[in-house]
Write a structure and sequence with these properties.
Immunoglobulin-like; 30 strands; 590 residues; 4 domains; five-stranded antiparallel beta sheet
Amino acid sequence: MIRILASRLLVSLLLLSTFSIQAQVSFDAKVSKKRLGLNERLRVDFVMNENGDNFNPPSFTGFQVVSGPQQAVSRSWVNGVQSFSKTYTYFLTPKLKGKITLDQAQITINGEVYKTSPIIIEVTEAVEKPNDPNNIDYITDENIKLVAEISNSNPYLNEGISVVYKLYFRNPISISDVQELESPSYGDFWSHLIKIGQVRVNTKGVYKGEPYNEVVWRKVVLYPQKTGKLNIEPLTLNLSLSVPSNRRDLFGRRLLTQGQKTISAGRRVINVKSLPKKNQPAGFTGAVGQFDFDVILDKDALKATESFQTTLKVRGNGNLKLFNLPKINVPNTLEVYEPEHKENVKIKLKGMEGTIEDTYTIVPQYQGKYPIPSIQFSYFDPKAKSYKTVRSQDLLVDVFDGPIAADSQKEITNAPKQIIQTADNTFRFILLNTKLSPIKTASFWNSTLFWSLLTFPVVLLLVVYLLKRFVLERTEDSGSKKQREAQRLARKYLSSAKKAFHDQALFYEALERALHNYLKAKLKIETTELSKDKIERLLIDKKVNQQTALNFVAVIENCERARYAPGSSVSIKGDYEKASSIIASIDRQL
């Protein structure tokens, strides 16, 4: 019995010691050989069993780095136990003979700094056969390359760049399968991955002047959103290879050996320049590229209370999705609604190209000729390294058949009086000697005064009817037409918000426009110029329940929070349903 207990205790201790050993963090340096010729290559692996940060390799004094670091990561589960391994690999050639010390490498794991032990490498005279030509590692390192080609490593802020990842390989290696182990992250960039479709091998590729088979693995377009040095994490691929071995078949042909190879494109650093402050235009909103700008009217002659549309359009190449168009400036007698934003942008390897436009619906209230002043659009041209400004043409809208603005009548009434100089004989035509005759008395009945007083009420009623029919009702029709236009736009924007459930920014922008245009239709006010407190007081003054007014303002605040703080917690479907119910509630109360 005592022996059984002792054996169980011994097994438990062994298991505990095993687990404690497995739980220990290890960071070691391994070399392919400790003695090599001056013309041979040395492989150095820095291996860790926990993921670490801030890896600092040794200085490699006495060696020349041929390639590296190549990063490889592997994870596995065996009998429910997870194992992890991360390796940084370098290939070196010695510069001199003698004993060379490979210094310590350093890494931070879980907040602790770990270092490898120094390794002494003995370098001898050059050997006749440097490295084994049949070694799989040697063959793969010489004949496989993974490269990240960057179009511009020193761009301006918001200037587009492209990154193309290419895999180069050549005989005697053939690749049967490729798996992506680690994908690069683009945290400081606006990024768009270009679809490649079916991967094809270009047998006429060239790498450093030598022929290779070329495979384009990934294409991405980046627009930097910060200045300074920005990192692009490496792309890591796992390759299934076929490599010739030393063995031969009955016919003397070399047999192929199947193997796995992990290869990395390495970390890349992009140095992003800030846009120059000197000569920066006042209306600059962040447009970077080459653009054309225009303002387009759908009609330049119309009746009062009819609507026309003005479109601000930008066409060209650059960060089209990343800046705002300028605002339109029109006379106060034109009622302007919130613009409808449209984008027709294609993203190619050279960047964004296409058009963006803001379309304003404008309703004139009075007849007259209304100028649409020239609008200025500024952008930074990275090729010319300077700011450029484009101005639209001055436009004129002719509004006819409508009421005249009170200001125009006031200008006529308040015209300056002129003093008329008269001659002395101006009034000599007036007779000074008159002949008076007695007035004959007549009866009131059937007189002119009698019939005038009798017909005056009838004529007055007729004039009032015509005034109401052709003037007041037309004015009311003008107001109701504008109100119907605003309601139509509110329904339109609410429908646009429903269609944009997949895009948080577009959804909340459309929802906020719908809420403002709804109040514009109901209260006949320009709510975009009012604070949320004033909107709340206006609703309460219109006999709207205070809680309903507070809920309406809360939805507007939620829209602003979602637009300007994208990381905040939002519920798109919940906000849409809440906005719909609040609009219905205000309709009932008004």
